[in-house]
Amino acid sequence: xxxxxxxxxxxxxxxxxxxxxxxxxxxxxxxxxxxxxxxxxxxxxxxxxxxxxxxxxxxxxxxxxxxxxxxxxxxxxxxxxxxxxxxxxxxxxxxxxxxxxxxxxxxxxxxxxxxxxxxxxxxxxxxxx
Length: 129
Prior knowledge:
It holds the Pfam family ATP-synt_I. The chain crosses the membrane at residues 12-31, 37-57, 78-94. The protein has one domain. Helices cover 89% and strands 0% of the residues. The chain is built from 4 helices and no strands. It has helices spanning 3-30, 34-63, 67-94, 100-128.
């Protein structure tokens, strides 16, 4: 894997861990069932990190393919990643020990990490200008 891509993946994963820490603190103080919520948060976050890595690998590989093969490859990998998310949510919904809400927050933590980093970078650029 490219060093730049690996660094971006590590940065997003660090952001996910920071968001999870903040969410875990809020869950402990605000939730009626913190154990199930924290389990769901951990479950969703681990899958989100793995899913983001799968996305990076598939994008890196699809760039080297011809356009028609790249489209087929990217689409098939997208379906696989969304199937994984569906299975995770299904398992979370069926298990009494895992909160669906916690799992959903964990799965969305990648998006929160990227958006949060973008907001911070934009604010720093505005202060410099």
